Amino acid sequence: MINHVTIEEKVQETPTVFSMYFRWEMKVMPGQFVMVWVPGFSEVPMSLSSTGERKCLTVKVYGETTARLAALNTGDRIYLRGPYGKPFTPTEGKKLLIGGGSGMASMRPLIDDRATGIIASRNADELLFADHFKEGQAICVTEDGSRGMKGLAPDALDKLNLKEFDAIYVCGPERMMYAIFQKLKGKDLNVEFSLERSMKCGIGLCDSCSIDGFQVCRDGPTFHIKALEGSMEFGKTKLLSSGKRVYF
Ligand code: FES
To answer: Where are the domains of the chain?
Structure first.
């Protein structure tokens, strides 16, 4: 069923990322996604960046639908169906959130006093939600060195004792996630990755989101690190919405 919601507030988070707040009574768990539609444009999958009574979508423009969303203002409607997919497994313990680019958006609902963040971006202006962490618990990593460590998200892992964390959550560009996977696999850590694939139905019918025989919309989008060991596709290849296979 498609629901419509009205944008209550729009916030520019970084030069290329904005958030839209709205009321929606549906129960959504962190890590689940919704299919977002605006008339005249294709649906796109997005995880919510706030899952309370007041919900939020945090959007980076990367195609026609997201460009249309960027042009909307408070009072305008957007259309949603869902929520779909498997949420992040919650923990009461210490957690590490690793977000690259706009990846921290889907993990923002997990940020609390027990959360440490590795927030990575090209430059200081594009760091997303770094200031939502408790003071001293955000490690910023920028490619140009304009804030925090100079480098990439996986470089920051060496600064931490990862065994301290009850859960590690990762979301961002797949090349970043795959580099983190390579560093953490086989280490008996509790790690979950949020994967992105082309989605059409969102409910396990069309197979556009398949990865190694799994369907990201139904079996994911969150996957435990053990489920990705032996994957022939994670970090290597994906299908575009046209059906063409491309390599990362
Ligand atoms: S989006 Fe159709 S099967 Fe996943």
So the answer is: 3-84, 95-247
